[in-house]
Amino acid sequence: VTMSVIKYSSPTSAGAECIDPDCSWVEQWVHRAGPRKDIYYEPNEVKAAIVTCGGLCPGLNDVIRQVVFTLETYGVKNIVGIPFGFRGFFEKGLKEMPLSRNLVENINLAGGSFLGVSRGGPKTSEIVDSIQARRIDMLFVLGGNGTHAGANAIHDECRKRKLKVSVVAVPKTIDNDIPLMDKTFGFDTAVEEAQRAINSAYIEARSAYHGIGLVKLMGRSSGFIAMHASLSSGQVDVCLIPEVSFALDGEYGVLQHLEQLIKNKGFCVVCVAEAAGQELLQNSGATDASGNAILSDIGVHMQQKIKTHFKGIGVHADIKYIDPTYMVRACRANASDAILCTVLGQNAVHGAFAGFSGITSCICNTHYVYLPVTQVITAPKRVNHKGRMWHRCLTSTGQPDFR
Amino acid sequence: VTMSVIKYSSPTSAGAECIDPDCSWVEQWVHRAGPRKDIYYEPNEVKAAIVTCGGLCPGLNDVIRQVVFTLETYGVKNIVGIPFGFRGFFEKGLKEMPLSRNLVENINLAGGSFLGVSRGGPKTSEIVDSIQARRIDMLFVLGGNGTHAGANAIHDECRKRKLKVSVVAVPKTIDNDIPLMDKTFGFDTAVEEAQRAINSAYIEARSAYHGIGLVKLMGRSSGFIAMHASLSSGQVDVCLIPEVSFALDGEYGVLQHLEQLIKNKGFCVVCVAEAAGQELLQNSGATDASGNAILSDIGVHMQQKIKTHFKGIGVHADIKYIDPTYMVRACRANASDAILCTVLGQNAVHGAFAGFSGITSCICNTHYVYLPVTQVITAPKRVNHKGRMWHRCLTSTGQPDFR
Amino acid sequence: VTMSVIKYSSPTSAGAECIDPDCSWVEQWVHRAGPRKDIYYEPNEVKAAIVTCGGLCPGLNDVIRQVVFTLETYGVKNIVGIPFGFRGFFEKGLKEMPLSRNLVENINLAGGSFLGVSRGGPKTSEIVDSIQARRIDMLFVLGGNGTHAGANAIHDECRKRKLKVSVVAVPKTIDNDIPLMDKTFGFDTAVEEAQRAINSAYIEARSAYHGIGLVKLMGRSSGFIAMHASLSSGQVDVCLIPEVSFALDGEYGVLQHLEQLIKNKGFCVVCVAEAAGQELLQNSGATDASGNAILSDIGVHMQQKIKTHFKGIGVHADIKYIDPTYMVRACRANASDAILCTVLGQNAVHGAFAGFSGITSCICNTHYVYLPVTQVITAPKRVNHKGRMWHRCLTSTGQPDFR
Amino acid sequence: VTMSVIKYSSPTSAGAECIDPDCSWVEQWVHRAGPRKDIYYEPNEVKAAIVTCGGLCPGLNDVIRQVVFTLETYGVKNIVGIPFGFRGFFEKGLKEMPLSRNLVENINLAGGSFLGVSRGGPKTSEIVDSIQARRIDMLFVLGGNGTHAGANAIHDECRKRKLKVSVVAVPKTIDNDIPLMDKTFGFDTAVEEAQRAINSAYIEARSAYHGIGLVKLMGRSSGFIAMHASLSSGQVDVCLIPEVSFALDGEYGVLQHLEQLIKNKGFCVVCVAEAAGQELLQNSGATDASGNAILSDIGVHMQQKIKTHFKGIGVHADIKYIDPTYMVRACRANASDAILCTVLGQNAVHGAFAGFSGITSCICNTHYVYLPVTQVITAPKRVNHKGRMWHRCLTSTGQPDFR
């Protein structure tokens, strides 16, 4: 591949922008990802930075590794990691980490983020000040919804200041809740690992007299992990997700159904997404540093309610509650996610070299593409409760409508 | 869902057939899979049989389990397993196994086939004699290319004899080499498990002085497992697949490249698909009971060639050969395959009840569908050596063209 | 081995008793375990029962399986499982489960208890009434301290009633806290699995800005699991066990030390045994059905204290709390425990056939032996805080004296 | 601990020697391992080297890591790794690797040897020349029987040259075949991992019509791994070890027994140690670079014999052969081995500082001790075929005497 460095042209439209001659985001806002014939930067002059934000997600290290590999393939010498998310741009004592193939060669064998993560961070203008001061040309941002919004704000501010900086995001949400995308990395691994917890709950429930196993799985606004993990395990009797409201009490409530299961089957397993049934709880209205609402703990709430219910009706019940969140988040990526991360990471670099900015590297309808960040941060993707997958989940659990 | 049993109508076309009023296979030969409003059999009169053929593949038990569950949901009481593949239809001493939800509840937790598998079997006419004698109405056949051809022959013979029998296949090939399908069950698990072998080869190679790790992976006519496993592991220096011919000797041969790797990097890892480089070997022309050509062992061949080569040039080399085939095949399905198996199994039963026969239950361009068996047995699917995935694999390994 | 059935002789001493001519418990209260030349029961007249009590522990199914196998080897035909612990002796609707080699062949491949467990149960006299009514000759009791006391009471009551019943216990405590024994089954597996949680905590802590990973491990009255898991992981900075008291606050308290670790190292991992620091908590004095004190949750307590402390000093800290209890308990036995279970199970049966009663089958100073139950229920075994193993743990963590 | 550096005194006896005033190897040749009040070296003047020899074994990295940690605790600044075994002492282009806590912090999370291994090496005098030239004061040698002999020769040569060098070995044999020791590191992990192979063989055998699973496990001169793995898996029908000779053919041969198993049970699993039945094979008399005899492959031999036998008697048999050797050797240590490695590594350093040389750090009758290398290299430890463990294994497999 012969590459020629082409000139910088000023942004031509709102949202993601590019200098690829074939590109017009106004009419066509999705682009096939991959290397371009012409590249927009002189590789040996480029300083590239990578930053990982938010909570842990399997595959972060795979993406970091692949971004470094691909940058080196282009000939980039100056690659740095910003430690601990956007916080690394301003916190004193946190230093840029020089990155190279040699250093990141095996980081994918462990979970976590080699660069460190954190939530929240400084103001956009401060980050861009720092980008300017550090003379960064390409910024690769790995993060979820909030981080994408942040990446877009940085992109906008760079445009405003006429800075020649490519801001390229790679979506990182274990919940798989970003619209338009087939799946986000880490999700497959999460579903895989979640089954370990479900199987433990099943064994505890089955081995106990009137055992009830309760597992809370990740899903800040969607039930994808809970639904997929329930379906793949085949051991779940009740799956509760935020997209489908349910009553705990009452004739058609969850508790009544558990009572029936204990009576007929002797034990049962419940899988609940963390955001499910929030309307049943008193919420504080508080938010974390990423701006996400702090959810009340539906798992603990249900555990209490189930205990009280069975005590009230004088039936013995032995409830075991498992919250595997951190053990899932800290996993390394499985093979399927590793491939996804590899491709997304390579494409992120191709996108930056093509002169794109304000884009995110993702897979959409089986194709790897670039989407403008603005298009994916409007609202979280949610389980379609009339769709086939949820219906299959209901068939598998055999649960009724809890209303 | 209210279901009415509709009348049997004679087959209307070649290949797969159905009595679904909306169905005309001549014009439209792919049908969306799923339950139909009208069903073609009276559930409590149905005798359904399941048979698993060929080699082991992760997920067999998941499909068996789900077929039984779904049959019971329809109300079928008489479900049997035919032991050890088509052999179970005639071998004396092998008895039908009555199946029920209770019996198969947890079979998915172990690998292998609960019913047993075998290759080859009796003539089609003998199998259909047995089907008649046993009064089987639905036959669910899990197997690969050869087995699908067998299923189709059974379907044809049943039509010829005017038997009201639905023959529904579920494709089982760990190699993922059936055309039209996005993927077949077991493949994802195989790629996952293959990485354990690759990682062992990497550790052995890296820990040895001039270490060379050689891993042979499954792929009777395609390199999908080798390609995906190499890409996801990120530890492979040379990936060899049957779709891309290569020379071992010569200036641009594999051996010369290994020499360079040992010189520059000190160690290397080679991943070879079992059918790769068959043109380099002397083949016996023999076939196994399934009619598959018995391949010469490219892994052992390469191990010898590498040893000889390095001895010849007077350079120390420490080669370790790993063949994880049976340890991969005997795995239980991972979460992703478990979901695939669940849906394919459910759909197989829906298809039979809809009156289809001669079909296979699969996923095609992200949709679950029924395809006529005749359409998928023409030739194996192969890696597109000009495609992006193979190109990504080459980028990952950094290997040159070996010709 | 030729076996002759010898006559029943009345018990000769307090505690465990036997009719083995070589045995005199008065002088020598430990006996080498294993088969005896003479057996005390006519195998084909024996009814043997197995019961599992208390919480789950890896290896229960291995012991059950081996007891059944060995009983069949002796020629016993009538083997039953009492479901859900001692509760199975009286709860209506709970039926004896007939057991055979065929049925239990593969139960060791899954965790949990095939028979079910429960805590507490009926009065001793009621249990013995049930034993009489069921005509049980041998009772194999798997359980911990409380269960051993129960087994001994049953043994005494049988003696009092002149019943020819062998009561043989197999110690089951994941905590490894029974005196005189080298180790109890399940402990090794628990330490192994605990490392998964510690590694997750390490990854979460290391990947976060000022991350603190906190893991609570099992240990109702001892710190063996916490100590061994900390030592083997090599990733723990502070290990807290009940045998060594500590202050949280103050100049030499744990919190002050964490502050230093965060300052110097940036992150840290704390491993706390569930019974550690109970003196720091307000206890309710309540007990569970097994008679064990219900402990206040030191993990949650520490999580709160750490949060408050760092907030108080204005230093950011990101704490992640992991409680892997049920995921550890539900594991299947690892290889080392599987061998231990196999031998203990075989020996339990040999002991019963030798005519012993009131004994427990264990490993003591590398020898497999029978001990009188009375000798092992006096008090739990505890970590010697002046011993070498604890000292090695301190060397590994580098923690100071927290007082 | 206050430490005083004491003077060097000349060696006082043959074999291992020490300057510990309490030590007299003539009368008492085993010493309790651990730190001594007086140390023999000035830590900040010490140059310590570590070398790993032979094949891979789980736990090598744990020992390396702990030796480095403990040396740093003593205050040693100059620590180096000799790459690729003794070969690293002379091979041009191989450089000493400076080691530090920071560098080795997480090496235990991966299998293999961080330093690299190799077999064979230069003459003793050349190694000692190199030791002198490099000014090494302490040499930690991790290896098996042959390596221990090498370590002892180095120790002798150093004494002859009046060099103040401590040569301390840590026994590394996955086979657990060194006399006097309870167990060697890596063995427990090997037994654990071997079960994955046995379980695969079991699943393949059980799922096939007349399936025979054959697993070859490590054991160059002993059957410990095969015996323990067979016992712990509970899935093996025939276990063959080098300590117990057997016939394949004939009325009481293995093949006849397999015939019976296929007839009665339908499938079977055979586990064979690599050195078993060598008398049945034609051996070349060749040795590898470590001086070990190159064994003929009993696994492949049996596979052929079984095929031929069943073909000869006209009975279908489907044999699957699994050799998991490299996948076992490349594993990281499990928790139990990790603790063993930690203590052995710490003790090796304590021993060197105490002024011992020609010793090996091991566990003997539950105590951690130092033994003179000369005592442990006389002959390999072997399974006692009249012992209880082998008897238990026979009980578990149910196999007869094959003679």
UniProtKB/TrEMBL annotation, chains A, B, C, D:
Origin superkingdom: Eukaryota
GO cellular component entries: cytoplasm
Classification via Pfam families: PFK
Manganese recorded as keyword: no
Chemical reaction(s) catalysed: beta-D-fructose 6-phosphate + ATP = beta-D-fructose 1,6-bisphosphate + ADP + H(+)
Gene3D superfamilies: 3.40.50.450
Keyword Metal-binding in record: yes
Cofactor: Mg(2+)
InterPro entries: ATP_PFK (IPR022953), PFKA (IPR050929), Phosphofructokinase_dom (IPR000023), PKF_sf (IPR035966), PyroP-dep_PFK_TP0108 (IPR012004)
GO biological process: fructose 6-phosphate metabolic process
Gene Ontology molecular function: any one: 6-phosphofructokinase activity
NCBIfam families linked: PRK06830.1
This protein's name: Phosphofructokinase domain-containing protein
Annotated source species: Aegilops tauschii subsp. strangulata (Goatgrass)
